[in-house]
Amino acid sequence: MLAACGQDDGPDFCGDHALFHGQHQNETAELVVEMSAQGRIDSSVQMLYAIAGEAATNARLGETDNVFRLDTASACSDATVEVESDTGTVLANYASECGADNELKQVNVLLFDAFPELDEVMVHVTTPVTEKHFVIHRQCERAIFRWR
Amino acid sequence: MKSILHFFAAGPDAPRLTDQAEIDRQFHDHRRNIIVILTVGYGLGYVCRLAFNVVKKPIMDAGIFTPEEVGFIGSMLLYGYAAGKFSNGFLADYSNVKKFFAFGILMSALLNFGMSLSSVVWVSALLWVLNGWFQGFGAPSAVVAMANWFSNGERGRYYGIWSTAHSIGEGLTYLGIAYLIAAPPKGLGLPWQWGFWTPAAICVLAAWLIYRFLQDRPQTLGLPSIAEWSGDGGVHARPIKHDAAKIWRDQLKVLAIPSMWVIAMASSTMYITRYAVNSWGNVYLQEIRGFDLFDANLFIFLNTAAGILGCVAYGYLSDKLFDARRPPANLIFGLMELLPLVVIFYGPTNSFVLAAALIVYGFGLSGLLAALGGLFAIDIAPKRVAGAAMGFIGIFSYIGAGMQDYISGKLIYDSEVRVVFPIGENAPTVYFYDYTVPIMFWIGASVVSIILATSLWRVKASD
User: Fold this and answer.
1) What mean pLDDT is predicted for residues B301-318?
2) What does the pLDDT read at residue B270?
3) Four-point Cα dihedral A2, A8, A13, A18, nearest 10
4) What value of ipTM does the predicted structure carry?
5) What are the pLDDT digits (tens) for B100-156?
6) Which residue, among A41, A69, A142, would best test binding to B if mutated, counting the most B CBs under 10 Å from its CB?
7) Residue ranges of chain A with pLDDT lower than 50?
8) Cα distances (angstroms) measured from residue B175 to each of B186, B196, B279, B294, B416
9) Which of A108, A121, A130 shows the shortest C-beta gap to B432?
10) How is the beta sheet containing A131-137 ordered, strand by strand?
11) Of A22, B57, B117, B431, whose CA is between 20 and 30 Å from B310?
12) Does the beta carbon of A29 lie under 8 angstroms from any beta carbon of chain B?
């Protein structure tokens, strides 16, 4: 996917990626996660059908287990899923109720397993006290922050 | 063992020079060199103490250590420093400080280099507690050197000049080292290991400068004592042998002064806040406020820079306005520390407000630091055992600081939420923390400190 990213391979691809990510960010899959103080977790994934094809994308994103797995002290409610299509793009929304006193320790994002074609994801995570924006790239061991 | 002690021991008196002009010239040259080298050398050496604070976040982000482990390792330096400052204070009195000080800084350099190679918690903790102990060679050596080369009547202002070394060290660390590690364009984006390699190189340079330019006692160069040369008689810096037993008894008496224990507890809780902001503040600003590493360290530098003025202002205000009574000044400076803390953590997120709050906080904190970290204790202790009083307060202060580092790290780690992206064998992970509970701990400690410091309202200086 995203030929622009593939052309960026260089001696320090991951170190330099923040410098040119902005040039192709409109073509990058996007993940938004919002955690509320009441224990609700709202998430969405937006990506181009060009990555894996319309049918496969809709099918994979329609199953929450393909996208997320939450590690919490006690079980959360089954996530609700809504998949909306637009021209060439899909938007999948997920919502889970985990409860205010339920300790969330880890969110596993399984997109790269579900989509072997996916090279990178732009991520926005908001917690009750902070927010972070970063890029995860298949070739890089660490998240990429502060892209331009 | 004997040969090691002999190597570090103060030299014997040299045959006395007779040419007064030559004596004056040597005093003039050596005193100039000594105050410069004490300030520059201590400032450069300070970088080896703070390096870990700057690389905490990159180390946590790289998944090498958790916040709890980072806190544990950080606390080790403070425990080592508490022990080092106390034990080395006694040793420095009998040492050739040019060798003693230089050796401590050189060992600190080696330990910083070792830290860059370690990804094992107990190894890093061991290296860092040793670093704390060797860092504890510095302050006693500097105090002994000042006692040897500057008379009673002038020591205060030279002590003030030397005190700026702390800000030199903090500035070099929070701006210089942060510049190396911070991502471009604000920094060079070098790997976190450079955060230890560079301080190590700086400390090797500092050790050489100290060894080259610092001097043993004036008498070892054939000069008279400073009291004799300056005509300013008074207590000699070195304990007199036949008084050793009495001094020891007086030192023990310090422990029997109830106010001393209150000051120790007040200092301990104040050090919790001081070191919380210095060691976790830049991590908080990056994690919660979203500043980059360089800007976060720049903000922390503002509070340390304001501290220079705070120290001077506290002394002047408490002496002139309150007739050398510390508690009223403690209350004023305590509130100047506490209120900005509330603004920093709960106030508007505007950068200018944050910067202003950190400056006022640093100003207020440094006043309290001057009082509770030593001045107030020396006021009420017998003057000839002021060193023991300082050591007693220092132990409590740095135990508080060390406990803070571990407790803060544990509280931060307990709030950790990981967002993990499994990709084959890799799993890039981004960590999220909630500082709500640690902040309550830091501000709570500040409140307790102010209450304790102000509770000694009627206590006056003795002697």
Assistant:
1) 83
2) 95
3) -70
4) 0.90
5) 999 999 999 999 999 999 999 999 999 999 999 999 888 888 878 888 888 766 766
6) A142
7) 1-8
8) 11, 14, 14, 7, 28
9) A130
10) A80-86, A89-97, A40-48, A29-35, A120-126, A131-137, A144-145
11) B57
12) no
DSSP class per residue in A22-84: GGTGGGSEEEEEEE-TTSEEEEEEEEETTTT-HHHHHHHHT-HHHHEEEEESSPPPPPEEEEE
Chain B partners of A43 at a C-beta cutoff of 8 Å?
Answer: none
**8-state DSSP, B9:** B
Identify the domain containing residue A105 by its residue range.
3-145
Task: Read off the pLDDT of each residue in B282-287 and give the average, rounded to a whole number.
Answer: 90
Residue of chain A with shortest Cα separation from B185: A19
List the single best residue of B59, B421, B436 to mutate versus A (max A Cβ within 10 A): B421
How confident is the model at residue B375, as a pLDDT?
A: 73
Question: What residues of A are in contact with residue B433 (Cβ under 8 Å)?
Answer: 130
- How many domains would you assign to chain A? 1
Of A105, A113, A146, which is closest to B183 when you measure between CB atoms?
A146
Least confident span in A36-50, B49-63, B238-252: B238-252
Could you give the CA distance from residue B119 to residue B116 in angstroms, rounded to a whole number?
Answer: 8
Residues of chain B positioned with their CB less than 8 A from the CB of A138: 423
Per-residue b/e over A34-68, b at no fewer than 16 CB within 10 Å?
Answer: bbeeebbbbbbbbbbbebbeeeebeebbeebebbb
B51 vs B89, which has greater pLDDT? B51
What are the backbone dihedrals phi and psi of residue A48, each rounded to the nearest 5 degrees, phi first? -80, 145
Q: Nearest C-alpha of chain B: how many angstroms from A90? A: 21
* A141 to B417: CB separation less than 8 angstroms, yes or no: no
CA distance B104 to B137: 5
pLDDT given at position A86: 82
* B175, amino acid identity: L
Domains of chain B: 17-228 (1.20.1250.20), 245-463 (1.20.1250.20)
Where residue A95 falls (left for φ over 0; alpha for ψ -120 to 50; beta otherwise) is beta
Burial class (CB in 10 A: 0-12, 13-18, 19+), A78: exposed
Please report residues of B whose CB lies closer than 8 A to that of A113: 422-423
In this prediction, residue A33 carries a pLDDT of 95
What pLDDT digit, counting tens, does each position of B156-194 carry? Answer: 667 667 777 887 888 889 889 989 998 777 888 899 999
Residue B383's pLDDT is 61
pLDDT in tens, B63-95: 899 988 998 999 999 999 988 877 776 677 778
Return the C-alpha torsion angle A64, A70, A73, A78, nearest 10: -10
Three-state SS annotation for A89-119:
EEEEEEEEECCCCCCEEEEEECHHHHCCCCC
Distance between CA atoms of residues B431 and B420, nearest Å = 9
Interface contact A112-B416, CB threshold 8 A: no
- C-alpha dihedral, B79 to B80 to B81 to B82, nearest 10°: 50
Using CA atoms, how far apart are residues B163 and B165, in angstroms rounded to an integer?
5
